[in-house]
């Protein structure tokens, strides 16, 4: 995978929604994915979907990207598909501040940030 995400990677997905991208990423690479979202219903849905794939290393937590509870160096990569894709122009500045906080607090090893700006909808629907 061009992002450098491998089976040895531990990926933080920010604003994971219903978990589709996290499950897809784990299926494609064998990596561990921890998905966070501020919506309890999204997290419940993501956990339900993940239960259909017990061999995948995917977990979901209700957390905010602006207040991460993880230790420094907990992840090799950060991934966000939905959060940045749906931003309004004024929200882009706020999102940039979130990425700066993530890098500054060193939650991501070597600050490897992967932001996906295209939709994976068709591809995800064929795998989940």
Automatic annotation (TrEMBL):
An example Gene Ontology biological process: methylation
Domain Methyltransferase: 11-86
SUPFAM superfamilies listed in its UniProt record: S-adenosyl-L-methionine-dependent methyltransferases
Gene3D superfamilies linked to this entry: Vaccinia Virus protein VP39
Keyword Signal annotated: no
CDD domains to which the protein is assigned, alphabetical: AdoMet_MTases
Domain of life: Bacteria
InterPro entries hit by this protein: CFA/CMAS, Methyltransf_25, SAM-dependent_MTases_sf
GO molecular function: methyltransferase activity
Official protein name in the record: Class I SAM-dependent methyltransferase
């Amino acid at each position: 995978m061009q992002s450098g995400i491998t089976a040895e990677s531990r990926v933080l997905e920010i604003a994971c929604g219903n978990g589709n991208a996290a499950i897809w990423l784990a299926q494609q690479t064998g990596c561990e994915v921890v998905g966070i979202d501020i919506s309890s219903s999204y997290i419940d849905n993501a956990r339900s979907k993940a239960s259909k794939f017990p061999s995948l290393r995917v977990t979901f937590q209700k957390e905010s990207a602006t207040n991460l509870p993880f230790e420094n160096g907990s992840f090799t990569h950060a991934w966000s598909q939905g959060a940045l894709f749906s931003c309004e122009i004024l929200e882009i500045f706020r999102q940039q501040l979130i990425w700066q906080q993530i890098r500054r607090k060193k939650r991501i090893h070597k600050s490897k940030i992967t932001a996906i700006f295209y939709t994976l909808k068709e591809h995800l629907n064929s795998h989940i």
